[in-house]
Amino acid sequence: MNIVIIGGGGFLGQKLARALVARGTLNGTAISRITLADVNDPAGIEGASLPVETARCDITDPASVARVVTGETDVIYHLAAVVSAHAEEEFEDGMQINLFGTLNILERCRKLGTAPLMVFTSSIAVYGGEVPDPITETSLLNPQTSYGAQKAAGELLVNDYSRKGYVDGRGVRLPTISIRPGKPNRAASSFMSSILREPLNGQAANCPVGEDFLHYYLSPRKCVENLIRTAEIPAADLGRNRILQMPGRTLSIRQMIDAMSAVAGPEPARLITWQPDEAISSIVAGWRFDIHADRALALGLAADASFEENVRYYIEDDRPGN
Amino acid sequence: MNIVIIGGGGFLGQKLARALVARGTLNGTAISRITLADVNDPAGIEGASLPVETARCDITDPASVARVVTGETDVIYHLAAVVSAHAEEEFEDGMQINLFGTLNILERCRKLGTAPLMVFTSSIAVYGGEVPDPITETSLLNPQTSYGAQKAAGELLVNDYSRKGYVDGRGVRLPTISIRPGKPNRAASSFMSSILREPLNGQAANCPVGEDFLHYYLSPRKCVENLIRTAEIPAADLGRNRILQMPGRTLSIRQMIDAMSAVAGPEPARLITWQPDEAISSIVAGWRFDIHADRALALGLAADASFEENVRYYIEDDRPGN
After folding, report:
1. All structural domains of chain B with their residue ranges
2. What's the pLDDT at A315?
3. ipTM score here?
4. Contact A268, A261 (CB under 8 A)
């Protein structure tokens, strides 16, 4: 089984590749090759027990997509995207990469005629506007960012290309991933990882919202497990909507910090400062958090058992020096 | 006020143009010019009291769009599409015209920077799958045809281009239009007009489904009135979802025929034959009919008062010889 991970240079793509290498199989079949493709040369997987190749791929260019998605490709993970703030500031980049990039992959599959399995990562950014709580799997998608609109359009295309038999597509709407490894970035959600990650690393971090702020989270480790499970769901079980809400947990900032203290003691929480940031608050206040994922849960996807687990995963998997 | 009707050669575009000419104003402003644009040369409006031009426009070609949508365009009606059966049989045509055609119009507006008002016609084909009844304005769009998927993606783009201020977009999901003038076509819904239209014209017609079959209908006359009203809704009243379900009425075939008999006497109904057609039945059985349009009703759009009205409209507006 040949697997291509587009967006394979990102932290999720890298974690997914390592998890697939560790398993050695997908859907009961031995993995013969993993190709990590990204717009910049992705890192490889050191000491992998099966062939892991790296390739440059610009998904805005159909010829570049054709070089990594071939007649031998059995499974495609499409994780590549420009994120929310980028797509909002650079409208054309977002359209080219998030919408046309997805279309280029789907069109490549259609022209190949091999109907590969494809896992598409969407986002809870597809929700918004005046749609009532709770958000369920039959709620209107009413995105309030270009990123969310492009992801929602991608979902429709993945469903239609699947219905036509051009691809065996599945999509999952990712919760906000926390605790995300690495450094803070310019995303409005960046603090949702950094207020835990930096203190766990012995560094200060600022929380720009109040401790009652609620949002919908999942750990990187569970996200990767869910991405693997998504590829293993029998197509017939997906019914007439191949897009699932990936399960997460709705938590307040206070609950996340208390979980950190329960696992790592009281010291890290003392490194958090509480300077309000109106710009960030006004963006994240519109985000939806009362999200239900019953269908995905029934199909074997899972949320973290608790945020304490999530803190432990960060310490085990990602904390520098571990 | 300069108005461009793309898809202006179709029966709705022609009726809309005549209605706009008869009014002379839109949103309180005098109409200075109407341009009917279509892929084939559209018919003009004879004896119009204001300038009505015709133009060829292939919406799959950005340069062709740029020739009809200019810096002087105040209002765009985008009615052009390849319909359901065509988009299902010719996948590339559907993508090019329904998805990329809509994108080309939106991109033209973005590049102009003049934020014209744009009315986009979507369809109840965006509904489908395992979404529970009733269908409301916050139900998931889960189309089961390529036409529906392309229209749903167009809705997302109209909303996002509007949110960004590139266009003052509005969309309306049209019910099945009946009694549609003209000849039967290859659409699976064709009989929903022909079983009334042909008998009212003194000709036989076959009904391929049972008399209990339910669907969601609107007359051409009310559809045109609603298209005009849609352009006149203050943008602020549309909130964060600029797409409305255009109101219709849910009726059985029996109710439609009884309405015809109430208006036109018992003779036309005797011209209907009842040969079941499994192919047509299996397609239309998946269509949704329990559709609510509360938001559009509150914003001044309307359904037909009764199907008797609808029969009268056909006789007054469209029956040959009237």
Report:
1. 2-175+218-245
2. 97
3. 0.97
4. yes
Query: Tokens 């080309």 correspond to what residue?
Result: B104
Contact status of B59 with chain A (Cβ, < 8 Å): no
For the stretch B93-124, pLDDT in tens is 999 999 999 999 999 999 999 999 999 999 99
Percent of chain A with pLDDT over 90: 93
B128 close to A (CB below 8 A): yes
Handedness of CA B244, B247, B250, B253 (dihedral sign): negative
How many beta carbons lie within 10 A of that of residue A199, not counting itself? 21
pLDDT at B85: 83
Chain A and chain B share a number of CB contacts under 8 A equal to 81
Shortest distance between the Cα of A129 and any Cα of chain B, in A, equals: 5
Averaged over B186-202, what is the pLDDT?
Answer: 93
From chain B residues 162-181, the ones with a CB under 8 A of any chain A CB are: 163-164
- What CATH fold (topology level) applies to the domain A2-174+219-245? Rossmann fold (3.40.50)
Q: Report the amino acid identity of residue A40.
A: N
Is B144 an 8 Å CB contact of chain A? Answer: yes
Task: Tell me what the mean pLDDT of segment B163-188 comes to.
Answer: 94
State which residue of chain A sits closest to B163, comparing Cα positions: A144
> Count of CB atoms within 10 A of residue B168's CB?
20
pLDDT digits (tens, 9 = 90+) for B267-300: 999 999 999 999 889 888 889 999 999 999 999 9
- Domain B2-175+218-245, CATH homologous superfamily name and number: NAD(P)-binding Rossmann-like Domain (3.40.50.720)
Kindly indicate the confidence band of residue B84, based on its pLDDT and cuts at 50, 70 and 90.
confident
| SS3 of residue A154 by DSSP | helix
Q: Among all chains, which residue has been given the structure tokens 């339910």?
A: B214
For residue B147, indicate whether it is catalytic. Answer: yes
Strand ordering across the sheet containing B52-56: B52-56, B33-38, B2-6, B75-78, B117-123, B168-174, B243-245
Give the residue among B244, B227, B271 at the shortest CA–CA distance from B19.
Answer: B227
